[in-house]
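Please supply some protein, with fold tokens.
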Amino acid sequence: MLKTRILTALVLLPLMLAALFLFNGVAWAGFSWLIIVLALWEFARMARLDGGPRYAYLAVSTALAAGLWLQGFVAPAALMALSLLVWLLLAPCWLAKRWPLPTGLPAMLLGWLLLFPAWFAFLAWRPQPTVADGLQLLAVMGLVWVADIAAYFAGKAFGKHKLAPTISPGKSWEGVAGAVVGVSLYSWLVTQWGWLNVPLSPLWLLPLAIGLTAVSVIGDLLESWFKRSAGVKDSSQLLPGHGGVYDRIDSLIAVLAVSHALRLLLV
């Protein structure tokens, strides 16, 4: 399994980096939408949208995304503020109340609320195929990766107190602490390297990075709860050794959406 995971990562990482730094606007919009629509397909599968309704949902979603992009759509602040409410209020309530994954139209709307803002953020954080814009988005995505890696090793080494045992038994508060430490160091480094083009001082970026670490954990736990509610181990088997696309971007979609919303509203 470890060998399969490594081989899959060795294929996906160069592809992601090539898209990030080399693809033009059309290619990047299509590539990033492919990531989102695959995750949306997996979400619809977990929500028991089968057959015709699932494919109609994906077709409508793709047509909507294409129409918005062709019209030069930029997500308004009001829409991204709604995304903030989803991740900072609705998602924690969902986890606290253990609501089941909905079906039918409510599931379709929830899928859009979770995944469309992440696509808007993919486009907004990387508006041009330049090194500066690529590094800017890479800095945001890197926060999620650093948080995951630091949490994994800190949890393995020190984990004793379970974070959410009924949702994701492997996660611990010690892992969260490790993620906070790792992200704090990472946020200082990307500031020194000049990867982020935001007019905020390090004194503001540090608490923001720690807050985004909490958002990352919420995104991870929410998808874990969706899978438990749906009775599946992985969102799919599209990525050998890694499960599904949604499994890989559960934290990322939350951090992308919230970071972009905060940039629109506060910067």
